Amino acid sequence: MDISLWLRQLGLTRGRATPRDDSSPRREVRNLGTQSVLACCVKIADRGPARMRGLLGKQSLGPGEGLWIVPCEAVHTFGMRFAIDLVFVDRRNVVRKVRSSVPPWRLSGCLRAHSVLELAAGTLDRTPVRPGDTLLFSPATASESTLSPPS
Q1: CA distance 39 to 47
Q2: How far apart are CA 3 and CA 140, in angstroms?
Q3: What residues make up the domain containing 98?
Q4: CA distance 122 to 83
Q5: Is the peptide bond before 71 cis (omega within 30 degrees of 0)?
Q6: CATH code at 129?
């Protein structure tokens, strides 16, 4: 497939961008071991176009924002403009692997993972997550989705 056609389909070209569906449900992510909130506004990418696009085209992730890619065992940061934190979880939402501040133009994967949580770089420094921790993905309330999390 021609790369320009692929970028157009993802809505990443200038002038011809296709409208993105921003109606994806959002989740709050909590570490059950520490009872800390990792993110309060996580989008779910569980369908083809959203999974393929991921965070490509975004300028950054704000505090409390993230993307949960389901299913997914590996991600890349080719073409991204910022570093991200990665949390690989299995089907029971048990953390299998974490990677902090993964810069652009890298690959990361975990064959035991069922999904990947992409967070703003530095999130894992402020809210530690370790392999073996269990994450809870619950629906975000309207106020959580519109407000940035407390510092």
Answers
A1: 21
A2: 36
A3: 21-146
A4: 9
A5: yes
A6: 2.60.120.1140
Q: How far apart are CA 72 and CA 62, in angstroms?
A: 22
Domain count, the chain: 1
Q: Which one-letter amino acid corresponds to residue 84?
A: I
The dihedrals phi and psi of 58, each to the nearest 5 degrees, come to: -80, 145
Confidence (pLDDT) at 93: 97
Q: Which pLDDT band holds residue 4 (cuts at 50, 70, 90)?
A: low
User: What's this model's pTM, rounded to 2 decimal places?
Assistant: 0.78
**pLDDT average, residue stretch 69-98:** 96
Q: Which of 65, 73, 79 is nearest to 26 (CA)?
A: 65
Q: First and final CA of the chain: distance in angstroms?
A: 45
Residue 136 CB partners (closer than 8 Å, separation 6+) = 29, 30, 31, 32, 93
